[in-house]
Amino acid sequence: MRLCSCGFANPDDATHCAACGSALTHESAGGVLLLEEVRSGQVVRVTAPGGILGRAGDFSPDLFSPRVSGVHAVVATNAEGHWTIEHTGRNASAVERGGIWSDLRCGAPQPLFGGETLKLADMVFRVRVGIQEAVAEGATAESDAQDAPAETAWSVRCPVCGTEYAVEGPKSHITTCAFCKDPLDARQIARVAARAVPDR
Q1: Cβ contact 117:124 at 8 Å
Q2: pLDDT value of position 153
Q3: pTM of the full structure
Q4: Where are the alpha helices (DSSP H) in 59-180?
């Protein structure tokens, strides 16, 4: 599976995202991790292979509040270029996917797909994965697709891990997720309704 910058899960052999049409490159699979602080709008830009988040960290240490530990969390990319985060600080960390908050723990790295909300002590961040530098700095990309008539794409987001799957229409559902193997999750996953994929 290849994850696009929009968070959509594509087949391994895909060259373009089925949801937004973006070319799938190493970077779009997770070369850049952006954490946008919701109150200030400031962005922590993390590049592969990752590093430490916190007041003594590798990325924008001056942005973090005094309640965030010096070494609060470690973010890293795996062999496929996908991001993970592991809690290492004193004050709590949590991630929200599909409306469900999960505490982060030492020794238990969790995946970051993009679209999550991340809480580090008293700070809250919006997570974006694989955004190219020009887009991250606010530049807009022009493409031939703008002249084409708009088509509505539909997707279902797993309520457990946040992975998105392309579906055929608004009445479509998924029954399993490639990342969530617990049988207890299957019933919750099957209830999720499809949503229109927003223009990127």
Answers
A1: yes
A2: 77
A3: 0.55
A4: 133-136
